[in-house]
Amino acid sequence: MQKIRQGDDVVVIAGRDKGKRGTVLNRVGPGHLLVEGINMVKKHQRPNPMKGETGGVTDKTMPIDQSNVMLFNPATGKGDRVGIRTLQDGTKVRFFKSNGEQVKA
C-alpha cells in the first residue's frame, strides 16, 4: 500500500520548492510523483505544423521524488508522517503519526 496516492495534498520538504503545497496528479514509477505546480521547468517547444502545435516556451511539471514530500495534515496545518494500520475487518487504512487520525481518502 502506497503512503502517498493520487489526489493527496502534499507539502514539499526539500528542494527549490520547499514549503509549497500541491495536489498529487499521478505517480511516475515506484518513487516519483507529479505534483501540481511543483518542480516546474521551461520547455522550448519546436513548432510542428503536421500536428498543429505552435512553438515557444511552455511550462512543464516534472516528477519529484516522494522522499521530498510529506502528506498535508489539515488538523495541524503542516506536513505529517503516515503509517498504515489494519482494522478489525482486515482493511488497511492510512493514519497520521502525530495525532493518530485516519487519512481522508
Q: What topology does this entry show?
A:
Blueprint lengths: L8 E4 L8 E8 L3 E4 L4 E6 L10 E6 L2 E2 L3 E5 L4 E3 L1 E5 L5 E5 L9
Antiparallel strand pairs: 1-2, 1-7, 2-3, 3-6, 4-5, 7-8, 9-10
The fraction of residues in strands falls at over 45%
Terminal Cα span = 13 Å
- Overall geometry: elongated
The count of β-strands is: 10
Q: Indicate the percent of residues in helices.
A: under 10%
What is the CATH topology assignment of the domain at 9-76? Answer: SH3 type barrels
- The CATH class of the domain at 9-76 is Mainly Beta
Mean pLDDT: 95
Summarize it:
Helix content is 0%, strand content 46%. It contains no helices and ten strands. A hairpin with a 5-residue loop joins β9 (82-86) and β10 (92-96).
Describe what you observe in this structure.
There is one protein chain. With about 100 residues, the chain is mainly β. It has a domain at about 10-75: Roll (SH3 type barrels), CATH 2.30.30.30. The chain has strands at about 10, 20-30, 30-35, 40-45, 55-60, 65, 70-75, 80, 80-85, 90-95. Strands 6-3-2-1-7-8 form a six-stranded antiparallel beta sheet, with no helix packed on it. Strands 4-5 form a two-stranded antiparallel sheet. The protein has a two-stranded antiparallel ribbon with strand order 9-10. Strand 2 and strand 3 (about 30-35) form a beta hairpin. The protein is elongated, with a radius of gyration of 17 Å. The chain starts with 8 loop residues before the first strand and ends in a 9-residue tail after the last strand. The model has no long low-confidence stretch (mean pLDDT about 95).
